[in-house]
Every structure is written in C-alpha cells, then in structure tokens.
Amino acid sequence: MEIIKAVRGFKDILPGETERWQFVEDTARKVFSDFGFKEIKIPVLEKTELFRRSIGETTDIVEKEMYTFEDRGGESLTLRPEATASVMRAYLEHSLHASDAVSKLFTFGPMFRRERPQKGRYRQFHQINVELLGPGDALVDAEVIYMLMLFLERVRLTGVSLEINSLGCPECRPSFRKVLGEYLAKKEKTLCEDCQRRLGTNPLRVFDCKVEGCKAAVSAAPFLIDYICERCKEHFREDQEGLKALKTAFAVNPRMVRGLDYYTKTTFEVTTKSLGAQNAVAGGGRYDRLVKDLGGPEVPGIGFAVGVERLISLLPELMEDIVRSPDLYIASLGQEARKLAFILCNRLRHLGILAETDYSNRSLKSQMKRSDKLGARYTLLLGENELKERKAFLRNMKGGSQEPVGLDDMENQLVSLLKAR
Ligand code: ATP
Ligand code: MG
Fold it and tell me: Which one of 127, 160, 275, 312 is most buried, by most CB atoms within 10 A?
C-alpha cells in the first residue's frame, strides 16, 4: 500500500533539525525578555474579515495566498497568513491597552500562504513575531530594530544587511500615490495583469511585485521618501540617529514597500546574499493606524517577523554544541546487571544526566557500537564479574581511558564525575 505523504508545501521538522529550532526559540525568549517583552499565544485560525481589513484587499496575500474556507456553520475562516493581525485582535478583545499604556508582545508559530513552493518558500512556514504597542516615538523604532539585530547576532547569523525606509503616513502618502500612478500609467503595458489592475487602486504594490517587467517599470520611479511630510521626515531622521547611537549598521532603501498595507513611517527588512531569490530573513515596520482600523483606540505600534525556516537554513553547519547526546551509556551483561542498569539509568535521568541503556540483551560489542552511534561521552561497563567485585568500569569514549567506579554509592560518584567534566 502506498504511504500517505504530507500536503505540498507543508513539511516536517525532524529531530536533528528541531535542536536548532529550540536554540532559536530559546535565544529569542531570552533576548526579547531582556527588552521587557512577554509571550502571547494566539490561534492559527481567524475570521477572514480580520485579514481583509488589516493586510489590505489589494495585497498578494489577501488576493491570492490565503487558505480561506467556509466552516460547517457557513462562516468564512482563514488560516493566518501572518501574526500581527491576530495579535491586534487579541490586544483589542482583551483590552490590553486599558491595563497598560505599553504592550510588548512576542509569539512563535506557523503561518500559511498558498504560494508556489520552492527553496525558502513554503505553504506552511514559521515566524517569530514581535509587536510593541503604545509609544509612537522614533527611538522605539530604533530599539525594536536593535533588538532584532541583537537576536540575529545571538543565534550566530552573519552576513546580513539591514535596510530601512519610510512609507509616510495617511496624510502624505496619497499625494505620492498620485505621482506614482501617473508615472506608472505611462508604462502600463509593461506591467503584469495584477499590477495593471492595481494601478487604479494601490500603485505602491507594484514596488513589491516580483515580475521582471514590473521591477523594470519601477526601477526609475519617483521615491516615496522624497514626498513624505515634515513629521514623517523628522521621525525617519530620529530613527536613523537612534540606530547610529546604538551602533547598528543600516542602509536606506527607498524602494522597499513591504507586502502589507498597514505599514506607516518606518519599515525595515533584513536580507542576506546567501539565500538567493528568497533573500528576506526578517521584515517589519510601524503601523500607527492598524489598531484604530480594526475598531480600537488610536494606539501606534511597531513590529517585525522573522522567517524561521530561512533563518535556520543560514545558521552555521557546525552547531554540535546545541545537539544533546548522552552523557553516559550503560552497557550491561546478564539479568542482574541489566536490572541494575535499568534502575541506575532512570535514577541518573532523574538527576539531570542524559543516560541510555540497552534492554534487549544484546552482545557487549553491539552495545558499544550503539553507545558510539549515540555519541555518548562515557560508557559504563556492567557485567557479572563487575557485580561480583562490586565495581564497574567507566570508559571515556573519546580518549578510550578506563577507570573503576565502586558499585556502592555509584549514583553519586557518577553524578559528580559526569557533572565535573
Ligand atoms: P518575501 O518577499 O520573501 O515573499 P514577505 O515580504 O512576503 O517575504 P513577510 O510577510 O514580511 O514576508 O514575512 C516575514 C518573513 O517571513 C520573511 O522575511 C521570510 O523570512 C518569511 N516568509 C515569508 N513568506 C514565506 C514563505 N512562504 N515560506 C517561508 N518563509 C516565508
Ligand atoms: Mg511574500
């Protein structure tokens, strides 16, 4: 019978890889909590309306990529394509703004977008999301970006560049939209169908289009940052000063618009050359209108998302120190020794030592092989003779040296031996 395989674009993360995931998540938890952020857990399924209203009707995500379906009750639901909208929903639903003027939140989890699967692009992928709600100051932008870069450094990612831009605000963006619309109208024929349609509704989206003709069409287009209002300019200037003060290297990329409509003012992206076409590791920006647009009070916010699969594919190959192998393998021969091995093994685990043993009465040779395969640091040899003489031998698997360990009080001896080394 043929086995059933996973859905296209969905993948399993197997042991050997999961250690890296844990390392990334543990590092994120540590770094973010040093900055005062707290974890929030949110559902993967939301009402479709939430994403339509926040991400924007004319974005690729909402137009083409969402997993939307009617549930048995006839309600339109969507597997979340991103996390910010859900965090905002939770923020409003539980009136977090009423209990604290500043909310610093982060969350981990899968996102779903029906894109064409390829390297670095999946239909279920994972993000680490950070949102900071309350203050609208530019120094907060610099701080959040600084935290992102520090996190990437702590997971030992190298060779990344940070690009920033300003997308202006609802006061200054419409005038640019007009200028850009007029510019692009002249190149209408070279645009893809989607972008032709978006010309009338949301010409900024052409900047985010990956079709070659569209990329060429915007290559000499006017820049939004040349049209933003004085307040947005000042905000962008302060943000950059903040980044410089925190010694965070960046470049201004006036073409970056990001794929979601809710961004205002500061946007940023972290890219790397070694990822090929899917080169964005993380992206984010300020969204000063989003909470209000979702029916809440006027609370500014800023956040970012890290693509975990892409990040993990970039981590240095040699990360042996994060994969845990046994401290001790207990090889036993004979009924009695086996029983003692069983008890000792579980007692040691209870004391925080990773111990393994054999239950199938295999030969000493195959037990040694198994110990080697597991990468155990030490092997304890426990046979009938050893039981008689009330001592076992502890073999260092790297150097090959052996030393006797008395059977009485063996647990404590082993713990102090293993923990000391
Ligand atoms: P891209 O331009 O590569 O499509 P994006 O702008 O759509 O990225 P965001 O919505 O900003 O991505 O999401 C943040 C991060 O999530 C990205 O920088 C990327 O690392 C990751 N990401 C986005 N889409 C996918 C996907 N389909 N598969 C894997 N990772 C993804
Ligand atoms: Mg995308």
Answer: 127
